[in-house]
UniProtKB/TrEMBL annotation:
MF (Gene Ontology): acetate kinase activity; ATP binding; magnesium ion binding
The protein, known as: Acetate kinase
Compartments, record wording: Cytoplasm
Pathway, per record: Metabolic intermediate biosynthesis; acetyl-CoA biosynthesis; acetyl-CoA from acetate: step 1/2
Pfam family, one: Acetate_kinase
Subunit organization: Homodimer.
Keyword DNA-binding: no
Organism: Propionicimonas paludicola
Catalytic activity: acetate + ATP = acetyl phosphate + ADP
Lineage: Bacteria, Bacillati, Actinomycetota, Actinomycetes, Propionibacteriales
EC code(s) of this entry: 2.7.2.1
């Protein structure tokens, strides 16, 4: 018996989706709607070995999803067989500590949380409302990027600011990419053949967005992203950590308002700001061609990453596994080597031949005498969401 689950990931102008059959955990259909809100939106849908491309104008998520239902009707698979819809939801705030079946009160609470994630939660909510309207008879489930980090201890999640202000506005570290950190860290336990709660690990999720987590005997105890996904590591276009005084400095120096400073740090910083490129294949190409800005960008990226690994080593009191995942972590052997080489004095040893292998499988890339097992584990956020969705509906 098939058990198809529909996964929706609604961004401000796009909807990515997959249908996964939970009986086999295989992807049955997938697609993406792009440029919602523009005069020419596109839909690309793959099912059963054939593809469909539509070019239309979708003014909003509701129109895009209504058209998507039509495409499912005409091309397949049958939406009437879907047993649940899982919605990627970026910010769960303090209210949502786990995957949650959505009802009116959950929706109301999500709307209340919107100020915490103004770029991410409103399109997510629009997607939930539109999907519930077109698929009213199946359970809809919110899978939160923040939920895995609900276990962070107060010492790790509290900012040293006025505590009344913090409580009044829910200002604290939340962490993001939780679905990936959870999936990958559990996969590490499987690969090592050890119970999840029997060892300490650090997971580096290095994609366009990047974050790192410290997991102590199966419990997340720290992570690099904070109140927003801007904090922590250097990313494709996001600065990661900067002096908090930089906002005021830029505001004064450039005469721009806080929203503009925020946009500058989110969209024009990181690797893009440092060297004009965001894709690590391009950055490596620039370095090989002798580009000094790209060299410095890479050094800044690695320095930040290694300083977080060192910090989490101290917080965990020792670590058994260090894992790389997501686009850069899974594919860029030079980044992995750059991190591990810097950690060599602490007993980390890279198996260079294993690191050079390209594969979609989880694998160990450290030598047997390395004090810490180093791994590459491909993430699969959609499958993780589908599992969470299935578990939430029982
Ligand atoms: P997102 O955060 O958008 O989900 P991904 O995890 O898909 O990002 O990562 C995308 C990034 O992965 C690209 O911008 C690029 O820097 C990097 N990447 C993808 N493939 C390779 C590759 N073969 N070599 C090096 N980097 C790669």
């Amino acid at each position: 018996m098939s058990e198809p689950v529909l996964l929706l990931n609604c961004g401000s102008s796009s909807i990515k989706y997959q249908v996964i059959d939970m009986a086999t955990e295989e992807v049955v259909a997938s697609g993406i709607i792009q440029r919602i809100g523009e005069s020419e939106s596109t839909l690309d849908h793959d099912f059963g070995g054939s593809s469909r491309h539509d070019s239309l104008g979708f003014p909003d998520h509701a129109h895009a999803l209504a058209h998507l239902v039509k495409v499912f009707d005409e091309v397949g698979p049958k939406l009437s067989e879907v047993v649940a819809v899982g919605h990627r939801t970026v910010h769960g705030g303090e209210a949502f500590r786990e995957t949650t079946v959505i009802d009116d009160s959950v929706l109301a609470k999500l709307r209340e949380l919107s100020p915490l994630a103004p770029l991410h939660n409103p399109p997510g909510i629009a997607g939930i409302e539109a999907a519930m309207a077109v698929l009213p008879d199946v359970p809809h489930v919110a899978v939160f990027d923040t939920a895995f980090f609900a276990t962070l201890p107060p010492a790790a999640y509290t900012y040293a600011i006025d505590d009344e202000l913090a409580h009044a506005h829910g200002i604290r570290k939340y962490g993001f990419h939780g679905t990936s950190h959870s999936y990958v860290s559990k996969k590490v336990a499987e690969v090592l053949g050890r119970p999840y709660d029997s060892f300490n690990q650090i997971v580096c999720h290095l994609g366009n967005g990047a974050s790192i987590s410290a997991i102590q005997r199966g419990v997340a105890v720290d992570t690099s992203m904070g109140l927003t996904p801007l904090a922590g590591l250097v990313m494709g276009t996001r600065s990661g950590d900067v002096d908090p005084g930089l906002h005021a400095f830029l505001g004064r120096a450039l005469g721009i308002d806080l929203n503009e400073v925020d946009a500058l740090l989110n969209k024009k910083s990181g690797m893009l700001g440092l060297c004009g490129a965001t894709d690590f294949r391009d950055i490596t190409g620039l370095i090989n061609a002798g580009d000094q800005r790209a060299r410095l960008a890479m050094d800044v990226y690695l320095h930040r990453l290694v300083s977080y690994v060192g910090s989490y080593l101290a917080i965990l009191g020792g670590v058994d596994a260090l894992t790389f995942t997501a686009g850069v972590g899974e594919n860029d052997a030079l980044v992995r080597a750059g991190v591990v080489t810097r950690l060599q004095p602490l007993g980390f040893r890279l198996d260079e031949a294993a690191n050079a292998v390209r594969s979609k499988e989880p694998r160990v890339i450290s030598t047997p005498d390395s004090k810490v097992t180093i791994l590459v584990v491909p993430t699969n956020e959609e499958l993780a969401m589908a599992r969470e969705t299935k578990a939430a509906i029982g």
